[in-house]
Amino acid sequence: MTTDPADARQALDIALRAAEIAGRGLMARFERPAEGITAKSTSTDLVSDADREAEDVILSIIRAERPGDAILSEESGEAEQGTTGLRWLVDPLDGTTNYLWGYPQWAVSIACYDEVGGLMGVVHDPIRGETFSAVRGGPAHLNGEVLALEPSDDLGQALIGSGFGYDAVRRRRQATRLMGVIPHVRDMRRGGSAALDMAWVACGRLDAYYEFGVNAWDVAAGAVIVIAAGGTVQDIPAGPEGAPGTLAARPGLADPLRAVVDAAAEGIA
Predict the structure, then answer these.
(1) Quick check: pTM over 0.85?
(2) Of 125, 147, 169, which residue sits at a domain end?
């Protein structure tokens, strides 16, 4: 069933407002002593009261205006099953470790999907005052300005983003794969927020990005924005890292990068 365009526009409006409000709350806490810090999957995978407060704000807005929609959020899991066919994917603070250390690379990520795929995505960066957004079919926007990616198939000149998980074994294997990719590209960057990495592919600050072990809420909004900007997003099957991956790239770079990323798995023990 095709989603009504009015629902897509409403979802975008909700996400933009929710991300802005949550972002203001996060900025009020940023670089202050953190509160309510606990560990999740490992001792280095952290969540704080800032994450929880931002999530509460976002979910309350969605529930008030779209009470029949399903919601999957990082901190509370599957909050509602839903009856409308729409499902929200929310990461209230992508880059929690950066946030807690005062490192200015974190964002609010909100997406809405239907049975076809990504309907709408918003990535809000309160530090820089930047909001990336898109509705399926495009165009993508950065603070209202249209994003349109230029094609390139020159992997050797490409600046690539990536990231690492929190499990020690997975990190070692991800680092080994990275060593196999670096000789084939201009350089690598590790920002610490998958949502921002994807958004930066959409605006051309990165030529491509790949990572294994990301969660759906990490990349859902960014994927919609990259595709709307003319880029490519691919799912990568699980490899030695033990988890599937995501790859995003400007036009022409996805397949060359994918070939190098796949080949680099051969060196992982």
Answers:
(1) yes
(2) 147
